[in-house]
Amino acid sequence: xxxxxxxxxxxxxxxxxxxxxxAAGFLLLGLSDLAVDLIWIRxxxxxRGEPPLAVSDLPPPLSPAPLAVFVPAWDEAAVIGAMLxxxxxxxxxxxxxxxxxxxxxxxxxxxxxxxxxxxxxxxxVGTVPGPTTKADCLNVLWDxxxxxxxxxxxxFKAVVLHDAEDVVHPLALRLFATLVERWDFxxxxxxxxxxxxxxxxxxxxxxxxxxxxxxxxxxxxxxxxALPGAGVGCAFERVALxxxxxxxxxxxxxxxxxxDYEMGLALAEHGCNARFVRIAEAPGGPYVATREYFPAAFxxxxxxxxxxxxxxxxxxxxxxxWRGGAAERWMRLRDRQGPLxxxxxxxxxxxxxxxxxxxxxxxxxGEALDPLPPVLKxxxxxxxxxxxxxxxxxxxFTASAHGWREGLRAIPRAVxxxxxxxxxxxxxxxxxxxxxxxxxxxxDKTRHRYPGPQAPR
Length: 457
Hints:
Elements: H1 3-46, E1 67-72, H2 80-90, E2 96-103, H3 107-114, E3 121-126, H4 134-152, E4 158-161, H5 172-179, E5 185-187, E6 190-192, H6 203-223, E7 234-237, H7 238-245, H8 259-269, E8 274-276, E9 290-292, H9 298-320, H10 326-335, H11 338-364, H12 374-402, H13 404-438
Parallel strand pairs: 1-2, 1-4, 2-3, 5-8, 6-9
Antiparallel strand pairs: 4-7, 5-7
Helix pairs in contact: 1-6, 1-11, 1-12, 6-12, 6-13, 9-13, 11-13, 12-13
């Protein structure tokens, strides 16, 4: 056999082994996804015909009290002013105090906050130069809130989290004020804003959040698993945060990259209850949700996804372990499968690319293609069926949230999501190694945009 024959023979072995590894892994992950889908379908059929709850159906709060909104801001001069003005306008009639956390070495953001000039905004400048972590900034805001409570002699009812790029909903605080009297943690849906300039990169967030907040969190809730926070559009009952802060003095772990996710799990472990709430603005109307633009560039999306993956899948494994019952452990496994899924995607794309190369060579030489092993054929057929099911569901969820055109785009956007996931996994491993080596974490944030004065809801 000549050198070329040996080379292609080696490539064929790699193709088969990579394909078998990817196909077996995809089947396991696909069956897990299918189980979630079937549970969601059962829940949907059970609630069929019942009109969704609207804000007007809620009773007024039993005990009116002010709400505190925490907005951590590092290098957010481009968006924080517009966000605050829009939020203050949306919540014109609400008893709210917005605490904005800044750093002394970020004078542009400080100036942008000061320019708002509204008594409902409290500028809080930490003593440590930035960036630290988002969780550390939130703890500084917690201390500022406690100090204001002592000084003003009034106690806040709940803490609401928002980011500097969020388009808040006018009815969100009205909803939180009532629901935190029943649940310790309330999470509203997040609906990314469609970006006409980035249909594919920013657009893939539409697909992921439509499915996650239209199905995944609903299933978690039904199974009794802990409800992770999304970091925005969520409210924590005041006493619940005090319970978490009892030992360390602060509710958020400053060493965490994904403090929102971990807070949801910590509350569940302390016996607190949580609710993912989808309530319509009005009967037959859209859900009350938080809107925002997500990264429009590939590098920015990778940066953001890498932080999520490092914090949840890698550091979260170290920090939170595997506690809880069967449903909780299953959900944690799903949360942490990102790096494995990225490895499987790489193996799958490698196998497919090599198969195309080998098929092209065989066709050029007038030879017949070597048949795939029976087990690989079976796995491939099963995975193609699961893929068709998966894409049809994603298309449906995206279409329901953003219209049929975006729903159709969700199908090819799955490839974009896979490419982002593979690149993010490689970066996440670097972040994880750095944190393990140095023991330090810092705010690995992305640039943000705000929709402007006529921001859609």
